[in-house]
Amino acid sequence: MSFFEGLISTDPTEEPQPPNDPSLPAYEAPHDEPLPPERWFIPARLPHTAELGAGPDTRLMLSGWHVWPRSVTIRVEIFRRRLAQPHSPRRAGRSAAGALRCGMLLGDGRKVTTLDPAPTTATNGPTGPSLRLEGGGDGFHEHLVLHLSQLPPEGPLELVVEWPDEDIPETRTTFDGTAVRAAGAEAVPIWPEAELFATPSTNGAARAAR
Q1: b/e map of 177-193 (b: 16 or more CB within 10 Å)?
Q2: Residue ranges per domain, the chain?
Q3: Are 128 and 113 in contact (CB under 8 A)?
Q4: What single DSSP character describes residue 2?
Q5: Checking DSSP bridges between strand 72-80 and strand 141-148, what pairing results, if any?
Q6: Is the distance from CB of 141 to CB of 78 less than 8 angstroms?
Q7: Which residues contact 26 (CB under 8 A, 6 or more apart)?
């Protein structure tokens, strides 16, 4: 006698479903990658911690880098010792004039910020990188993700933050962009034996990010 005899319910009869192929699409290595390709790779991880900005009751801390073959994600933690209300402009994701803003000065002199207009489809060649800020958490601790849609060029990489609502002044922290860029080669493909890696394309960003 089975230990579970008499306790297992039978499966209901299922109606026939139309044919469906829920296969993972091919990864097309794009010039610009607005979202991390989490379905295809384990990123290279750079365990770098640093204070990015500080106010009277708030700290912005870097907790690490996730480097993909074509882009990079920066992990940022917010710590508070006074509670931020759910609908307060002090929450990082609010779009008020005093909200958190982040930017990068790349080694080749280009500047990219979270205040830049959303990129549009390129018609005359490749576009520059974009910087996307997402995340959330409770009032005392929030997890943020800054995604740079292209690997930084070689040279110094400055991360700039400012948060007027938290009395955090403009603060610059310099990193080694050459090391970050090189780490992209260490990202691990999940399905290296499958035909999931198409020829690089400047139009592959949307497909890669799905």
Answers
A1: beebbebbeebeeeeee
A2: 43-117+128-188
A3: no
A4: -
A5: antiparallel
A6: yes
A7: 195, 196, 197, 198, 207
pLDDT tens over the chain, length 210 residues: 677 777 777 777 777 777 676 788 888 878 899 999 999 999 999 988 999 999 999 999 999 999 999 999 999 999 999 875 655 655 555 556 888 999 999 999 999 999 998 766 555 556 889 999 998 877 789 999 999 999 999 999 999 999 998 999 999 999 999 999 999 999 999 987 765 555 444 444 333 433
Other Cβ atoms within 10 Å of 204 Cβ, number: 21
Query: From the CB of residue 148, how many other CB atoms can be counted at a distance below 10 Å?
Result: 25
Of the CA atoms within 13 Å of residue 85, those in its CB half-sphere come to 3
Q: Which amino acid is at 107?
A: G
Classify residue 49 by its DSSP letter.
Answer: -
User: Measured between alpha carbons, how far is 194 from 27 in angstroms, rounded to an integer?
Assistant: 11
Question: What residue type is 100 in one-letter code?
Answer: L
Q: What topology is assigned to 43-117+128-188 in CATH? A: Immunoglobulin-like (2.60.40)
Total residue count of the chain as it appears in this document: 210
Q: 61 CB contacts (<8 Å, ≥6 apart)? A: 49, 50, 51, 52, 76, 77, 78, 79
Quick one: tokens of 112? 């990219």
